[in-house]
Amino acid sequence: MQQHTHRYQLRKAVQTALLVMAVSGTSFVYMSAVYAADGTKATVTSYRIKADTLEQSLSEFASLSGVSITLPPGLVNGKTSSGINGNYTVQQGFDALLSGTGLQAIEVSRGVFSLQRSSPEIKSQQDVQTLKEVTVVAPKGRDTEIATGPVNGYVAKRSASATKTDTAIIEAPQSIAVITRDQMNAQNVQSVSDALRYTAGVYAESNGPDPRADNIVIRGFDANGRDQYRDGLRSYAFNNQGGTVLEPYGLERVEVLRGPSSILYGQGGPGGLVNLVSKKPTDVPIHELQAQVGRFDRKQVAADFGGLLTDDGVWSYRLTGLWRDSDTQIDYVKDDRVFIAPAITWRPSDATSLTILTDYQKNVRGQGYQALPKVGTLDANPNGRIPTSRFIGEPGVDKFNQERYALGYLFEHAFNEHLLFRQNLRYQHMRTNALSVYLSGLQSDNRTISRFGGGSKEDVDNLTVDNHAQFKWASGIFAHTALIGLDHQKMRSDVEGTFGVFSDLDIYNPVYGVGLPTLNVNNDVTQRLRQTGFYLQDQIKIDEKWVLTLGGRRDWARTSSEDHLTPADSNAQNDQATTWRAGLVYLTDSGWAPYASYTESFTPVIGTSSPARGSKPFEPESGKQYEVGLRFQPEGQRTMLTFSLFDLTRKNLTTADLQDATGTYNIQRGEVRSRGFEAEAKTQLDNGLDLIASFTHTVMDITKSNDGVQGNVPNNIPKHAAALWANYQLPTAWLAGLSVGGGVRYVGARYGEDTNEYKVPAYTLVDASLRYDMALLGQQWKGWQAAMNASNLFDKEYVAACGYYGDGCKWGYRRNVMATLTYRW
User: Fold this and answer.
1) pLDDT of 696-722, one tens digit each?
2) Cβ–Cβ under 8 Å, residues 683 and 705
3) Residue 383: exposure state from Cβ atoms within 10 A (0-12, 13-18, ≥19)
């Protein structure tokens, strides 16, 4: 008895200590479309809901199952539920949770339940089950998750990024990764780059700390943080400063489509693209308030609300917002933000829906780009290591202020079961005012640096629209899902740039504010892009075993640059390109799905060859990829394994024209090849253990070049990378409501420059998390959750990348610890 008492006291003490630093154990649900024995459609769902108060358990179950239930306080007060862990229909789930309580859930209208006292004839859960016995059989390859909606847990089963249709991932002939909202919450991601840290084939922090853009490399090629896709629509900025950095709290998913993707999206890089899926209005009520504090004096509050606006379900809404005041690991550099995203959906019938998405974001920061001398970071310096917090700019002068707003809509109408039309549109305006001071070189005393700097005022306007009709029909063993689409992009950027030479700075004992220069305008340009694309695609399922995907696209693009300072330097050009894709997937009964594919990309290149070479406009860059892979998705489990081999070539890169005496012209003599192997696994086990594992092996070669680097490896691309994340929800008998998580990330050595004269060492980082459901402390804490997350837990100092101007390198991210308190009701 004494031992039991001590164990109980210890458990309560630990619960109290974790009050402000752990968050709730997660409840999981996996849903599948099923059919009853009489042929009517039903739904069976795999739930895991822990023991709790009856009110909390019923509310959680209703939220996960997408229904609503009224809970009269007089019926639920003082009652508890033992939870559920298994497969249930909605009615069976309610019955199991209410077993032994003398209560029952009655469906009074579609998706709406009422809690009532059990009728005299129904005395127990066993009686309920014997009234109607249902046998269910799940059809192959289909579940109730939708491609652009929320996912319960880490394992997404459907996506639209690879096909623009609601398709099971296992049927797509191209490698896809989906980072769900639950994973982002568990890992407390603060940027899109953070979300991709555990994703195979992705080098997510290739530029070190830099708030201007999410610098992401996919399969060895820069995905261009200024070229993102949101809800399938492109968001583009022409210049270095004006990148679109979207707040991750406003996202439902982050999806990576690996490899060339021009067949559906038009111009883009060969490595792949990142598609950000916005939070959208929901029929299920959402009420969330969140407060966060952390290292570097971080203070943040956020809110997320959603639900029905009318009882008939015609109107629904979502309102997401965030405010942050924060310093960073670099002196004098802020990371302040305001973000708000209202959204509304109109659904007059089951056949028609219109969702209007808007958002506003304001970033007020210092310049996060801080390349420091290689001697003092990567190499030894007699004066010691340069501090990772060192700021080489000018306090009060350097800035990176950006305002962005967007307005768009997602429209869908089904004419019948065979024909569906979609039109998605977004207009975005972004204004950036930046001024930065940079390293130009380390002087002979190994402590004084030379500096230059400049400003950039940029206004960017993007208008993107995508129209497509989806046709579905079947003939014999062939089932078709075909797309015919037309999209258009219209983008404009007005940029004014300034330049000046700043005074020298002692990097070990900086004295700021000395001899600030007058900045002179050196750039005033208007850039435009218009692109129209016509595409066709057919997904052909053959005998429920084979999935053949064929697609082709034709693009017409016009790019222009109007130089207001030197009109003679203005230029414009027209480009056309045709791209193709073909892929084949085989679906086995055991859940394995081998696939093979070929796909292409193109990117217009602005400029011409030298007059001596005829001043010919450059041809578009092109990408071509061959990929074979294997997926495993066992039926009825929350598991997805993906293995892929790829061979990817990027052609028509521009390099310096060595025959041009002026040094101002390039020539298209470049080609880079990337080959590799990727493995990624995500699983959620019924015992409360969640796992994410990834491994990447990339072999890159500069196969063509005229500047002496042919045969070398491109800079800052690791040959090997691996990551492992695990989260465990402790059993109730141990410490109810507590889950612990941790991760390890390894990034291999890489060359600092294309000349391959030196390497940047490998590094390994450790992350950790604690999460606690405070409802276990008492009814008054119902809905409260707390968490503590740490990235780079052991505060390892490492060099993220080298090869910057002035022989510079950049430090990587230092330890960051954040505490989060969330209230949901």
Assistant:
1) 999 999 999 888 899 999 999 999 999
2) no
3) middle
Residue 41: the pLDDT is: 39
Kindly state whether residues 190 and 52 are assigned to the same domain: no
Whether 571 contacts 560, CB under 8 Å: yes
Asked if the structure places residue 11 within a domain, the reply is no
Q: What is the pLDDT of residue 144?
A: 63
CB-neighbour burial class of residue 25 (10 A; exposed 0-12, middle 13-18, buried 19+): buried
Would you say 717 and 698 are in contact if contact means Cβ atoms under 8 Å apart?
A: yes
Q: What is the mean pLDDT of the chain?
A: 86
User: What are the E-state strand segments in 604-704?
Assistant: 621-632, 638-656, 666-684, 689-704
Location of structure tokens 């680097």:
709
Residue 1 DSSP class = -
Nearest CA to 176 out of 192, 186, 185, 164 is that of 164
Q: Are 459 and 439 in contact (CB under 8 A)?
A: no
Query: From CA 107, how far away is CA 65, in angstroms rounded?
Result: 13
Q: What is the CATH number of the domain that holds 621?
A: 2.40.170.20
pLDDT of residue 143: 46
User: Residue 96 sits in a domain of what CATH number?
Assistant: 3.55.50.30
CB atoms within 10 A of CB 801: 23
Residues in the chain: 825
Instruction: Give the per-residue SS3 of 545-594.
Output: CEEEEEEEEEEEEEEEEEECCCHHHCEEEEEEEEEEEEEEEECCCCCEEE
Q: How far apart are CA 179 and CA 410, in angstroms?
A: 22
Cβ neighbours of 639 (radius 10 Å): 17
Query: Which tokens hold the place of 588?
Result: 């086995």
Q: Is residue 252 located within the same domain as residue 320?
A: no
CA distance 810 to 715: 14
In angstroms, the CA 623 to CA 652 distance is 9
Shared domain check, 314 and 249: no
Residues β-bridged to residue 392: none
pLDDT over 80 at 240, yes or no: no
State both tokens at 785. 């959750």
Residue 39 amino acid letter: G
Q: From residue 138, how far is each of 31, 478, 588 by CA, in Å?
A: 10, 21, 16
How many CA atoms does the CB half-sphere of 369 hold within 13 Å?
A: 21
What pLDDT digit, counting tens, does each position of 334-393 carry? 999 999 999 999 999 999 999 999 999 999 887 767 899 999 999 999 999 999 999 999
Residue 338's domain comprises 278-293+303-824
DSSP for 687-754, written as a single string: TSEEEEEEEEEEEEEEEE-SSS-TTSPPTT--SEEEEEEEEEE--HHHHTTEEEEEEEEEE--EESST
Same domain, 252 and 318: no
As a whole number of angstroms, the distance between CA 731 and CA 740 comes to: 12
